[in-house]
Amino acid sequence: MSPIPSQADAARIHPAATAPELLRNFCIIAHIDHGKSTLADRMLQLTGVVDERAARAQYLDRMDIERERGITIKSQAVRMPWAAAPAPGEKAVPYALNMIDTPGHVDFTYEVSRSLAACEGAVLLVDAAQGIEAQTLANLYLAMENDLEIIPVLNKIDLPAAQPEKYAEELAGLVGGDPEDVLKVSGKTGEGVPALLDRIVELVPPPVGDADAPARAMIFDSVYDTFRGVVTYVRVVDGRLNHRERIVMMSTRAHHELLEIGVISPEPIPTKGLGVGEVGYLITGVKDVRQSKVGDTVTNAAKPASEALGGYSDPKPMVFSGLYPIDGSDYPLLRDALDKLKLNDAALVYEPETSVALGFGFRVGFLGLLHLEIVRERLEREFDLDLISTAPNVIYSVTLEDRTEVTVTNPSEFPAGKIREVREPVVRATILTPAEFIGAVMELSQSRRGDLLGMDYLSEDRVEMRYTLPLAEIVFDFFDQLKSRTRGYASLDYEPTDEQVADLVKVDILLQGEQVDAFSAIVHKDKAYAYGVMMTAKLKELIPRQQFEVPIQAAVGSRVIARETIRAMRKDVLAKCYGGDITRKRKLLEKQKEGKKRMKTIGRVDVPQEAFIAALSSDSAGGKDSGKDAKKK
Amino acid sequence: MSPALPEGEPVPDDGALPGWVRPAAPSGTARPGAGGERAFGVYVHVPFCTVRCGYCDFNTYTSSELGGGASQVAYADTALRELDLAARVLDDAGLGGRPVSTVFFGGGTPTVLPADDLARLLGGIREAWGLAEGVEVTTEANPDSVSPESLHTLADAGFTRVSFGMQSAVPHVLATLDRTHDPRRIPDVVAWARDAGLDVSLDLIYGTPGESLADWRASVEAVLATGVDHVSAYALVVEPGTRMFAQVRRGELTLPDEDDQAAKYELADALLSAAGLEWYEVSNWARGGQTGPHASRHNLGYWRGDDWWGVGPGAHSYVGAPGAGHEPEPEHAGVRWWNVKHPRAYAAALEAGHSPAAGRELLTADDARLERVMLAVRLHDGLPVADLSARARTAVAGLVADGLLDGRAALRGQVALTLRGRLLADAVVRELTD
């Protein structure tokens, strides 16, 4: 209804001294672009936490990349005071609302699940001009599984293209309830936002915990700060945490002292502690987010809890790619940069790797494609590195004839011996699409070895399609293809489910009989030929003629499945070299020799690095280009 | 002459050479074991043509483009001034007194100057340094800028050799090249030159847009029919800035690909060899080969690292340090300089009593070694394997295996190109230099 009016009221919701029934912990589930950050800013203003002039646009998104891409990678929690009637007709009382920001993308499902576990309620925020997207739907299901109170809200009702009635139906259908109950707001103008805050107080249940039990607090985020070390965000479930006391991380048994504890509103405010049900931050002086893991349980060292809170798991990389500096001398810079990023990214794993074609680099594991893109972009932007990344691949489990198990994260390491079976990760994919594209989506999914699990109409013209798909097929160019075949309308979400045995082979590319490691790929047997033909043709275009004939072959094992030949160069000689030509000719020669130094030598074949880069980066040329076209439309 | 001048350091106004070129022996005499061992040649650039050809990027001008001290009429006098300066500079450096082994008049078209002017310039050279016993004096000439009389005048003045820019025997090819002469005139001008006692060379260009393999064969056969003892054949190179470059860019002309050029080179080599003209440099063939009486000794001087003075706008000159070519000092292996390009600037500098040099480069031993391999490898006899760096020597076996270097020559300790190697000479040079 309004910000907190009086000193006395404010005292009732002082951090570390707020009764659980005056707390409301909630998050906002929304798709990229659906206006979550704008709405959050508006809430911060309305509750008086920031004034309009001080508000940086989209206060919660801190990193530049997030700001530019309009997405939130790291969640944070802000405490906001709000006076409202606990139920319609009653007198307004002060409340402390903790807004927990959630990452919006499929790659960060685990982090989302921990954020959701810190809340009792979720605002389901949907763009009134676009309707719900697949990732939002996935997160909605996650919130429902966590038993959260869902408050459906349509945003951007100020837009001319908004269709609030239509999408209210859709939301009501998903959440259950009446379309009338769907709130309609505009984060931009502020319309409907006070009513939403009131609704949160009214509907979101207060936290329930045992104030007298040994302390248990769940870490739902962990952020590295250059000045302060790791800042850990927690939700106290039972008991309380106090400044200066010793705590234990229950998964690692590591002990730390609470150097600082407090709440964010919107800047960190140190407090004496955090009481049951409260949300805030801890600083223990650790320097690496791996020492303060999302999902872990914090307890008191002197009076420890016997059982950790459930739901903890280690982040598991799903997608791998080789990252190489284009300038080989940047390798140490790349290593330092990865070391730095790692401090703030518990999911980032990497190890050194050497490629004949690309030199020294790292094999890096990511949660998914967006994670890969974000990391790559940060490396290039924040650390000024020029990188080349190999085509992303998944992890394969290979069982050899002698029952030896091999885990393959790099196609060039695929074992050469007798193979009994190869298993690949599969995902459960959810695709939301306008009904008119059902055929196109089916065609694409089938061509990617997908199995249709089921299909539901969300509304008259919107369909949810569920598939089992090999992850490897998704990391190739599935999303681009999906976008291009549905004119940009379809959305995709997936979660890893299982492994499956598949008829997979490794295709090697050989240059004059020498394997070019960067181009080895693990593909389904039926697609090996197409890959071989595509890659040999591409390299033939890109590699300059040499002094000798160079065969380019694609092979599965020792069997050649495609071949191209670069004919030998026939003429490379300056016709005239007299007195006045010598200086120029020598300088040209020196330049050519410099150029040759920058070439990679495969066997005896000199290949300009640009050729490798071009061959790798235009890997899914068809898909990417058409994807761009789709976006333009 | 290459189109753009290189980047270099400035040259003193008086054109003085660096002190380290001075031989140990007292000035005024040929120094033993240094400059005295190397032949000394003089090149005279004549920057005039009656027509500028579409493919030409040489430093040359038609008469209408110039005036004043740079005009054709005044040119011989201007160039004679540079010869005076050259004599003084070399003398001051202790390098005077070496008689000239070879003289080459190039252009442009030297024969657009009256034969008397050319004779006067040769006289100037004789006056400056003296001409060695058996001196070779060549002039380039256009088939339509000579007469029996002018050729006799040249022979009488001491010229020994003439190189005609024939380019092709096929009218449509000549037309594409903007060449104005009538190909039927070639046998006549060759005969006149021989009558005058001059050794004759013919230049050909292959790979002109529109030239078929049959066209090219006709040109080579026409050359052979004249019975000349020396032939140069150059692949057409279309440099940026030429009219032909623009025509190609606009799609009006289509350049042949490297396979076509290679095929034409191989055809020429087969026909010329069969007629007794042996290749002695990548683009040059002569009866008797590299050491025979018809090879161009002046050009061999460039490829062997001899000293030469280039007279005229844009001309390059080179003087090696004592011991250069064998065990040069690491820092100072030689000096190369080049004159200002435009005839007017050239004339103005000389009129003011200054050196017309625009810049120079001081070659290190590494530069010199690179140049030595780069140039000597183009010759039939090549260079001793021993002259290569230790690392480059390891590349020889592979180049023999690839058919680029001659295996028998390698066994004799000599790096020499095969026919295929000649077509890939630049690639071979890259392999043979560090």
Automatic annotation (TrEMBL), chain A:
Quick one: which residues bind GTP?
D33, H34, G35, K36, S37, T38, N155, K156, I157, D158
User: What does this protein do, in the record's words?
Assistant: Required for accurate and efficient protein synthesis under certain stress conditions. May act as a fidelity factor of the translation reaction, by catalyzing a one-codon backward translocation of tRNAs on improperly translocated ribosomes. Back-translocation proceeds from a post-translocation (POST) complex to a pre-translocation (PRE) complex, thus giving elongation factor G a second chance to translocate the tRNAs correctly. Binds to ribosomes in a GTP-dependent manner.
Family per record:
Belongs to the TRAFAC class translation factor GTPase superfamily. Classic translation factor GTPase family. LepA subfamily.
Domain Tr-type G residues, every copy: 21-208
Indicate the secretion signal residues.
Answer: none
The record's keywords, sorted A to Z, are: Cell membrane, Elongation factor, GTP-binding, Hydrolase, Membrane, Nucleotide-binding, Protein biosynthesis
Its protein name is Elongation factor 4
Task: Mention one GO biological process in which this protein takes part, according to its record.
Answer: positive regulation of translation
Its source organism is Luteimicrobium xylanilyticum
This chain is encoded by the gene named lepA
The answer to whether UniProt assigns keyword Protein biosynthesis to this entry is: yes
The major lineage groups are: Bacteria, Bacillati, Actinomycetota, Actinomycetes, Micrococcales
InterPro entries from the xrefs?
EF-4 (IPR006297), EFG_III/V (IPR035647), EFG_V-like (IPR000640), G_TR_CS (IPR031157), LepA_C_sf (IPR038363), LepA_CTD (IPR013842), LepA_IV (IPR035654), P-loop_NTPase (IPR027417)
Q: Does the keyword S-adenosyl-L-methionine apply?
A: no
GO cellular component, alphabetical, reads: plasma membrane
TrEMBL record, chain B:
**Radical SAM core domain residues:** 34-278
| Positions of region (Disordered) | 1-32
Q: Which UniProt keywords apply?
A: 4Fe-4S, Chaperone, Cytoplasm, Heme, Iron, Iron-sulfur, Metal-binding, Oxidoreductase, S-adenosyl-L-methionine
State the SMART domains in the record: Elp3
Query: What start and end residues bound the annotated signal peptide?
Result: none
Q: What does this protein do?
A: Probably acts as a heme chaperone, transferring heme to an unknown acceptor. Binds one molecule of heme per monomer, possibly covalently. Binds 1 [4Fe-4S] cluster. The cluster is coordinated with 3 cysteines and an exchangeable S-adenosyl-L-methionine.
Q: Name it.
A: Heme chaperone HemW
Q: Which organism is it from?
A: Luteimicrobium xylanilyticum
Q: What is the lineage of its organism?
A: Bacteria, Bacillati, Actinomycetota, Actinomycetes, Micrococcales
| Gene (name only) | hemN
